[in-house]
Amino acid sequence: MASENLTHNNHLNGDATTNRHVSKKLKLAPPALITDAEIQSEFSHHDPAVARINNGSFGCCPASVIAAQRRWQLLNLRQPDHFYFNELKKGILHSRTIIKDLVNAEHIDEISIVDNATTAAAVVLQQTAWAFHDGRFKKGVDAVVMLHYAYGSVKKSVEAYVSRAGGDVIEVPLPFPLTSPNEIITEFRCALERAKFGGKTVRLAVIDHVTSMPSVVIPVKELVRICREESVEKVFVDAAHGIGCTSVDMQEIGADFYTSNLHKWFFCPPSIAFLYSRKSSSSSDLHHPVVSHEYGNGLAVESAWIGNRDYSAQLVVPDVVEFVKRFEGGIEGIKRRNHERVLEMGEMLAAAWGTHLGSPPEMCASMAMVGLPPCLGIKGDLDVARLRTHLRNEFGVEVPIYFRAPATAEDGEVIGVVTGYARISHQVYNKVEDYYKFRDAINQLVNSGFTCAQLST
C-alpha cells in the first residue's frame, strides 16, 4: 500500500519518477481506445437485472474511478494529519485547475468545488438574502426570476432565501411539449416585461441549462443576453446536468454564476459540483453555507474545508479525465454519441407507441422526453409515481415519468392526448436492449388493457 500511495502522490505532483528517465525524443503512444467489453467491465457493479435508462438522476461512476476514490479514502484513514496538511488542499487545487480548463473559466479563483449543485444554489441565493437583510435590496420591489421548469430543490431554496427575506419571485411559465427554443425565449422576455411594468427590479435571474423534468436544453446564451439587455443585475445558471452532457463554456455563456454536478454526466462518484463565480460579480461576498475555520478566505478556500468529511469525490477528477480519454473524441465524443443514441432510442420508442418526442432534437442533450401511450390513463403526479414504481418492481426498468395536463380549448375539449412522458437517458454503459426492455414492458401493459387506475387499489 505504501508504494501504491507513493506512486499515486507522485502522479498528483506531476513528478512521477519514471518520467525523469523517459527520453525527450520518445513519444509515448496514446492509450488504446476502450472496448465494449471494457466498458461493461467498468460498470459491472450495475444491477444486471435492471434496464438503467435513468443516468440523469444519479449519474454513474466507472470501477477504475471507484478504485481511485478508495485509494484517497485509505490515504486519509491511514494518517489523517498527513492527508490534511500535505494532500487535501493540493489535490483539490489540482481538480479545480482541471475544471477551470474544462469550462473555459478565465481564472482559477473563479472555480470552487462544492458537494452538489443544490449547495451552489444556496451559496448564490444566500448572497441575495443578505442583500435584502442589509437593505441593499428593497422588500416588495426587488425580485428574482426563475423558470417554471426549475428543479424542485432550487425552488425550495428560492423560497427559503428570497421569499423569506422579502423578495418577490417571478416564475416564467413554459410550454411543453416544445417545438422551438423561441417559445422559451418569448416567454422569458414577456416575464421580464411584466416585471418592469409592475415596477419590479430584477436583481437575479435563475436559469436552467438542461432542465430536469421535463428535460429540455434551454437556450441559455440567448437568455443571458436578454438579461443583460434588460439590466438584470446578476444571472445564475443552474446546470446540474451541464458538464459532460452539453456544451459548457463560461466565456460563451457569460453568466455571473454557473454550477454543474460532475457526478451526473462526468463519471465522478457522488457527490461533487463546481460553482463558477465571475471575478467581476462580487464573488468576494459569496460564502459557503456551512461555516468553518476557513470563513472569510474566499469561497474556494472555504469550500475546500467545511469540517472533517469524505472529500474523495473531489479528488478523483484527474482519474475521470484519464477515463474519458479512453473514448474516441474524449468527453466531446461521448456527448455527441449519447445525444445521437438517445434520439435514436427515443424515436424508436415513440414509433412503437404511436406518440412523439417532447422537444426537437436540438433541445435534447443526453436525455429525451418520449410520450407514453394515452391508453395508460395517466391523470396526475400520483399516477406517474406509481407507474414508475410498477415498471421498476415488475419489469426491471428504471425510468422517470412526467405528467403534463393536456391543453383544453374554450369549450373544454381536450386538445392533447399524451399526458405522460418518459425521460430516457443514454450513457456509455447503455445497450439497445435496455430500451427494447422498456418498449416491451409498455407494450405488455397496453396489450393487457392496463390503466394506472389499477395501481390505486
UniProtKB/TrEMBL annotation:
Q: Which Gene3D superfamilies match?
A: Type I PLP-dependent aspartate aminotransferase-like (Major domain) (3.40.640.10)
InterPro entries reported in the protein's UniProt record: Aminotrans_V_dom, PyrdxlP-dep_Trfase, PyrdxlP-dep_Trfase_major
Task: Give the source's domain of life in one word.
Answer: Eukaryota
- Which GO terms fall under molecular function for this chain's record? lyase activity
Is the keyword Lyase assigned to this protein? Answer: yes
Q: Name one Pfam family in it.
A: Aminotran_5
Q: What residues does the Aminotransferase class V domain cover?
A: 86-280
Kindly report, in one word, the top-level EC class recorded for this enzyme.
lyase
The UniProt keywords, alphabetically, are: Lyase, Pyridoxal phosphate
- List its EC numbers: 4.4.1.28
Q: Where is the signal peptide?
A: none
Asked if GTP-binding is a keyword of the record, the answer is no
- Span list, region Disordered: 1-21
Where composition is biased (Polar residues), the residues are: 1-20
Record PANTHER family: HERCYNYLCYSTEINE SULFOXIDE LYASE, L-CYSTEINE DESULFHYDRASE
From the Swiss-Prot or TrEMBL record, give the protein name: L-cysteine desulfhydrase, chloroplastic
Q: Which organism is it from?
A: Stylosanthes scabra
Phylogenetic placement of the source organism: Eukaryota, Viridiplantae, Streptophyta, Embryophyta, Tracheophyta
**Which gene underlies this protein?**
CPNIFS3_1
